[in-house]
Every structure is written in C-alpha cells, then in structure tokens.
Amino acid sequence: MTSHVYHPREIEQQAQDYWDEEQSFKMSESSEGEKFYCLSMFPYPSGRLHMGHVRNYTIGDVISRYQRMQGKNVLQPMGWDAFGMPAENAAMKNNVPPARWTRENIDYMRTQLKQLGFAYDWQRELATCDPDYYRWEQWLFIQLYKKDLVYKKTAAVNWCPNDMTVLANEQVIDGCCWRCDTAVERKEIPQWFMKITAYADELLTELDNLPDWPEKVRTMQRNWIGRSKGIEVVFGIEGQDTGLKVFTTRPDTLMGVSYVAVAPEHALATEVARDNADIAAFIKECEHAGTSEASIEALEKRGLDLGLKAIHPISGEQVPVYVANFVLIGYGEGAVMAVPAHDQRDWEFAQKYQIPIRVVITPEGYDGDVDALVSDAAHVDKGVLVNSAEFTGLNFRQAFDAIAAYLEKNDRGRVRVNYRLRDWGVSRQRYWGAPIPMINCPDCGVVPVPEDQLPVVLPEEVVIDGEGSPIKKMPAFYQTTCPECGHDAQRETDTFDTFMESSWYYARYASYDQGESMLDQRADYWLPVDQYVGGIEHAILHLLYARFFHKLMRDAGLITSNEPFSRLLTQGMVLKDGSKMSKSRGNTVDPQELVGKYGADTVRLFTMFAAPPEQSLEWNGNAVEGASRFLKRFWKLVTDNDHLDLLAAWKGPGNVPAVDWQNADADCRKWRHEVHCLLQQSNRDFAKYQFNTVVSAGMKLLNLLYDVASARHSGTVGNTYDALLAEGIDILIRMLAPIVPHICHALWGLGGVGGALLDANWPQADPQALLRDNIEIVVQVNGKLRGKINIAAGAEQQQIEDAALGDDNVQRFIKGRQVRKIIVVPNKLVNIVVS
C-alpha cells in the first residue's frame, strides 16, 4: 500500500486476519482487571444483516472495545436465535428443511459480522436450534415441573389459523398475528404454562434495583405486571348455591352496579348455552376474537342477557347477568361488575342495551344534576360517594376501607392484590422449536422424560407442507413407552415458544462448553451482564421473560445474582425518508454493498456519528460519503511526510516522552490546550455513550492537527511542534479505535508502536495542558457588557480589577462617575457598579 492512499478493504482484511491469528477476543475468567460483560441481543438468522443489526452491534462493539482499553476483562459473545416460524415459511417456499435453511443463513451472516470487525469471542458461539443448547432448557423445565412451577391446562388462546400456532398476547398486534398479519381467533386447547405470576412481586420490586435501565422500559414492565390492590366481591346468583366472584379496584362504585358481565367461556354462559341457541351462537362467534386486551378493546362491545340474576352483596338488589365479548376468561374470575356511570366501556354497553346508569360518585363540592355528569360519557374520576346508603359522603380511601370491612364481616368479599400479568403459555403447535420434554401416558398421565434421555431431539429432515407440525405425523418421533409403567405412550408434540431459548442464552455464553450441566461457576464470574444493547420493542416480551428465567435459574442453584442485565441501552431505529427501514416499504439499504464500496469503518463511523444511540438514525447517503472522506483525511495526516516517524519516536517501545511544554511558544501551548480539551470532552462523552459527539471531537481534533502540521512544516516554529503533532496523532488514534478499529489498528502498526492497539491504555487528558495561560473575562458596567479583557490565568483579584478599570471602552462608561463596588466572578466576568 502507498503511504498516502487509504485502501479500506485491504487494511480491514489485514486487521481481521491479525485478530483471528492472535485470538484477540478469546476471553477467559481472570483475576486481573475488572470483568465487563457486554452483550447485544442476538439476531434471528434471516439470511442477511440489515442496517438495524449493524447499528445495534456497532454500539455494543464500541462499548466493548472502549471498556477493554480501560483495562477491563471484556467478554462480547455472539449467537443465533434460530428457532421460529419464518424458517417454516421459508421451508414451504423454497422446499428446503428449516434446519438447512437456518444453518446456511447463519454461515452467511457470520461472515457479514466478521467483515464489520466486531470483537466477538467466536469460541462461545451458539445457535438455539442445536440440541446441546436446548437440552438444558428441557432439563430446567423438568425441574420446574417437579416444583409445581410448570403445569398443563386447557385454556383459551390466541390461535393463528395461517401459521396454525398459539400466540402470546404480546404477539397479537391490532388483533393480528405479529408474524403474518392474519386475524387471530380464540380457541381452547391444552397448553403448557410457566408460573411467572409466582414471581410477580419480585419482578416488580426488583425494577427499583435497575437504575441503569431506561425509565420508559421499567415503566412498561411495571404496567405489564400491573399490581393493583382491590376487593374480591362475591355476588350471589339467584337459584344457585355458588356465588360469582369479581375483582375491582374501585369498590367505591359498588353501589352503582347495574349489571354483571361474564366471559363467553365462563361456566354460567356455557351452561345457559346448552338450551339457548342464540347464546351458543354468540359464544361461537366470540371464538374469532383474540385473547389479548388490545384485540378485545378494538371490538364493538356486544353481549346477550343470560336470563340470570346476580344478587348485590350489599343492597341485595337483583341485576341482570350478561355474556359479553369484552370480558376475558383469563383475567380474574372471568367476570366483571359493571358500573356504567363510572366506566366508559360499561357506559357504552349500557347505552347499547338500555341498562340503567346510576351515578354514585361526584366531584367534591358538586351540587348540580348528577345525571348530567354522565349524559355524554362515564364520569371516571374519583370523588365523593352519593346515592350509596351508609357509605354516602365518603371519599375513595374511606369508602375502600369501609366497604372492604362490610364485605369481609358478611363473608361477601375480601381485600386482595391482583396482577395484570398472567402465567406464560410456552407451548406452540409448530414444528421448528425445541420439543417439550413430556410424555403422555394413558395410565400415568403426564410424565417427564427421564433426564438421562435428554435432549429430546427435534427431527431435522422433514417436509413442511403447511398442514400443522410434521412431527405430529411422525410415529418414529411421538411413539414411545412410559418411563413409569412401561406401557405405550406418546411424546408431547408441541414445541417451546422461542422466547424460551432467548430467555437464558446470555447465561449459556458463560458456560458455553459445559456438557454436564446447564451452567457452572463461570456464570457467576460473568453475570450479570454489565451492558445489554437492544431495541425497546423487546421491553416486555424478551426482557421480562429473561428476568423471570434468571430468577428460576437462581432458585435452581445455578447462579447467585438476582437480575440478568445491570445496564440496558435501547437504541433507536434506522429510518429512511422518515420511515423505519423494511423490505415491505422497499426502503432498505444493504450494508454489504456499503462495506464493499466504502469499507466497514466508514459504515461504523456513520452509524455512530449520525445520532446518539437512543435516538432514531435517519439514513443519509451524503453523510456516508462524508464519513469516508474523513477517514481518508485521517489516513493522509498520519502517513504524510515524516508523521509516522514522529509517532514512532513518541510512542515506540521504551520511549518516555519528556517535553518542556511550559517553554513552548504561545500558539503551541494554545493548540495543546485545545487537544486536551477535546480529549477530555470525548472521555466524558464515551462514559455517557454519546458516540456522536466523540466523533465530532475527533473531527475537530483532526482539523486542529492539520493546522499544527502546517505550522510545523513552515519551518518557523520550535521542535515542541514535533511532540505536539505526535501526541495529537497518538490521542486521535486511540480515541477513535473503538469506533473505527481497522484503520486505527493499521496506523498504530505503521507508526511502529509496540503492542496491540486493543490493549493500549485509554488516553487521559493532561491536567497541566487543560490550564490556560490567559483567559478572557467579560467586563460589565452596571450589569451591561462594556468590554472584554485577556488576563493571565490565576491572576490576583486586584490585577483583574485594575485591568477591567483600565480597559479603554470601560473607561468611557465610568468616566466622571463614582465606582461604588467591583464584583469579580472568577474566570467569567467583572461587574463594575457605578453611581
């Protein structure tokens, strides 16, 4: 290569070859240096990286390299979230088994990641579709089953008729499947559940111990867990011995109940439906609605009177019982008390079916017509009770306590804490997932697979025809014998939700080669993850499940920490023309083409400079060109003339620079001050992950060094300029090394600097250089700007006052007037008060 020409692909390949040969990123547990575990959310192997991947992984890589230069023992692994429906869809489209399609994609995407120079410990690479990986979640599932933290029951689920699988509530977007956008249906089938609700309190309270998570994410999780204190109220049913339980957080509205509504699947509704064709048809129709709150809220509120009467627990009044499409069987007892005056959904339903609306809450001090409060909509605010018998006049808090006491005394209710969170349904009726390690025996019931028979391996040579899971048609897979009685039995043919695999992969990286247990002591060395990087769209789905899984592993004695991720960074999206890049919008940019045209460092530099990590990044082709030009100027400065020799003399092995900076000329001292101010700024910004301003500081520093080089080559300055240029180049290379590692690696080597740049110390600003020879101070007269003075840093107050009073322009405004007071704000201003 020539000294003045920047050949990115050549130097990037050389750097990557060096890192591979030296195994630069192969990490182990060490007592030397503080550990730092940096992890970016692993990708689904869809076939090609997109710019969202590039940005996510560049952020993580910059953090990892920066922390390594801080002297820490840094781990940054990579793997593949390999199971899921897209592989089955691709298998049908391309007539290729999902396993083959997935592994071919992994091979291609691994090559792409390596071309971008990410500092991954590839020895720890994992794919969740490998039996050596999923055997351990099968093992843990069995342990949880033995602890009664796993169970199977028939439940109403969101069913995607296109993908023929169950969807979690979080996977239903606007009533449709998040994968294929097909409208979901409600269906009752046997499902496996994990008792995440048993950890609801801890999942909620531990959020307070995660101060380095974005508050938005913590709020989303708090809302999803949804802890609420209320009262479980029991309504009698006329002619029946069993009461109807409902949960409410607004017992102050209890006297305004004018009907009760139950879910279509509720026993009261199904019983009536046996002899009522209209009710039966309505229940059947409701099966086409989803089970998520979002899908239910989008529905027109409809229902039918069951012909039953509920008995009010306080007044004894009888109110009608409706079956309604907006009530979910999985929430509470599948029944709600309806207070149309004070709940908008109940109000709309009552308006539709002409049900009485009774106002029992008014604003404090209200003396108007109470019915007017609800003429156009429900009055949902808290206030003072009216029309509520002995509870009239109480406020919300008083009414809560009084009504709770009344109901408990009369055995018609109790105070209860309720959660919005529901147990995690983990079984899916699809093929490409980890088999659930259970056996169904006609005599013994459900029996776990013996641990010495794990893993239950998913057959990979299959044909996907779109008609359900192929393993349900494979006797060789599902036919087996019961481990307890030895009789014929069948394996479970449902597979795990893919969020199972992504809920613990971060821990397996620490014990990647352990064949005898799920984790070993190395997990306690590395965990928790010090920095986790990923999109905010995973705030509920993945992050909540991972926190839950971490606590399960802790309680199984596998780890000792309470939380998986100490610090979380949620990067913004990559946009083009104001919209998120996506194939469907036709606005994607292929990072492979960019790397081929400009080099990986240009792509990395652009993604870090275009926006702070948390903000969305707007694609700008001109800015990519600008990043490329900057790197060419960077290369030219360092390799031009004798600059490499200067760097070698400054930083070569054994060199200890000794420069008399105090006797350098004023311009040299001024420039060195600016160099170290920029370094100090970049150090602050790196610590805050404000990489865009770090790049900005690097650009300013490069321009400044060109000025220094120009002055030096003029031949009229002292030899301290040699040292200043060498010091500035050394700082710039190290400062940019985490962001553009290939070019910095090459320049470090060309400069004859000993050792790998990866292991160089992070540059620190010289406190002496940060001191200024002279400072500019504003001078005011009676608070108005009248002049500016330059004065030696550290000057005594009397010197500052004399200089201010002696300024020619200031003299014009104080001439002939009495100076009453002089106020000096050190290093900032002087205010002369005159009469």
Considering the chains and any ligands shown, give keywords for the structure.
seven-stranded mixed β-sheet; four-stranded parallel β-sheet; single chain; 835 residues; globular; alpha+beta; 28 helices
Number of strands: 34
Shape: globular
Percentage of residues in helical conformation:
25-40%
Provide the residue-averaged pLDDT: 92
Continuous helix count: 28
Fraction in beta strands: 15-25%
Low-confidence stretches: none
Biggest β-sheet, characterized? Answer: 7 strands, mixed
Quaternary class: single chain
Class from helix and strand fractions:
alpha+beta
Evaluate the radius of gyration. 35 Å
Distance between the termini: 73 Å
Description of the molecule:
There is one protein chain. With 835 residues, the chain is α+β, with helices and mostly antiparallel strands. It has 28 helices and 34 strands. Strands 10, 11, 12, 13, 14, 15 and 18 form a seven-stranded mixed sheet that branches. The chain has a four-stranded parallel sheet with strand order 2-1-26-27, covered by helices on one side. α1 packs across α25, α19 (600-609) crosses α20 and α22 runs parallel beside α24 (720-736).
Short characterization:
By secondary structure, the protein is of the alpha+beta class.
